[in-house]
Write a structure and sequence with these properties.
The structure is a single chain. This protein has 180 residues and is mainly alpha-helical. Helix content is 78%, strand content 0%. It has nine helices and no strands. Helix 1 packs across helix 7. The radius of gyration is 18 Å and the shape is globular. About 7% of the residues have low confidence.
Length: 180
């Protein structure tokens, strides 16, 4: 029998990380919420082994990544790259503003939050073949070789997709800066 309060504490401790991985890989907050729920359902099933285990974070990261990759391959035709609602953007902006703790003026903090929100939106707008390896490399600290193994593609394809994803993000950020 699982201690509900212990599991609730476990979820509270890991929910932001699980959701962050999912939203970056999937590029859609609604789908990331669904995957996050599935991750925690699996964690509940294995909570007797996960509970206080220091490897629980790694287990959650692996399960989240695998579920996202499965979701992407299963629902490829349903991807909607640019369909974020304004409420999703506003919520993402608020979360970035809350997380930024760097010293400086309020104007600098807002500018930095805006840049992070544009970058996050740009990542979500990348095609999945560029977004997924980029997220695995920069946010999950995976090596090119690991990413190639996870995605079952060549090392050269991983390097090319990450490079092109970075270029697309750079162009987006430069275009946004020029528009301001």
């Amino acid at each position: 029998m699982v201690d509900n309060s212990a599991f609730e504490t476990f979820v509270y401790k890991h929910q932001e990380r699980v959701f962050g991985i999912a939203v970056r890989l999937l590029g859609n907050e609604t789908e990331a919420e669904d995957v996050s729920q599935t991750v925690f359902l699996r964690a509940f099933e294995h909570f007797d082994r996960l509970g206080d285990n220091p490897a629980a974070g790694g287990w959650l990261r692996t399960v989240t990544t695998n579920l996202c990759l499965n979701h992407l391959s299963r629902y490829r035709a349903r991807w909607r790259l640019f369909s974020q609602r304004s409420t999703d953007r506003a919520a993402a902006g608020r979360r970035y503003e809350e997380r930024l703790a760097a010293p400086g003026s309020q104007a600098e903090d807002l500018e930095r939050a805006g840049q992070h929100a544009r970058l996050e939106q740009g990542i979500r707008g990348l095609p999945p073949h560029q977004r997924v390896p980029l997220v695995l490399f920069h946010f999950e600290d995976r090596s090119y070789k690991e990413i190639a193994g996870i995605l079952d593609v060549t090392l050269a394809k991983v390097k090319t997709d990450i490079h092109r994803g970075r270029q697309a993000l750079r162009r987006l950020m430069e275009t946004d800066d020029e528009a301001r």
